[in-house]
Amino acid sequence: MSxxxxxxxxxxxxxxxxxxxxxxxxxxxKVVWPTRQETTTTAIFVAILMTILALFFLGIDxxxxxxxxxxxxxx
Length: 75
Prior knowledge:
- By secondary structure, the chain is mainly α.
- The chain has one domain (15-74).
- 75% of the residues lie in helices and 0% in strands.
- It has helices at 3-6, 17-29, 36-74.
- It is elongated.
């Protein structure tokens, strides 16, 4: 066996709470937040797609339900 298989993994150094908060702030500053216009446009787009998909699946479900009822009348 190799020596690396028996050695424990190197532990990450512990970070103080103050350093952790500083790192979180640095990372949060890198986030690019959407504008109000982008958020509104995306929400409207999602609502329209949800409506279209809901109507599509309603049609599919209704069609299959009618097909199953028709098949059961033959039995």
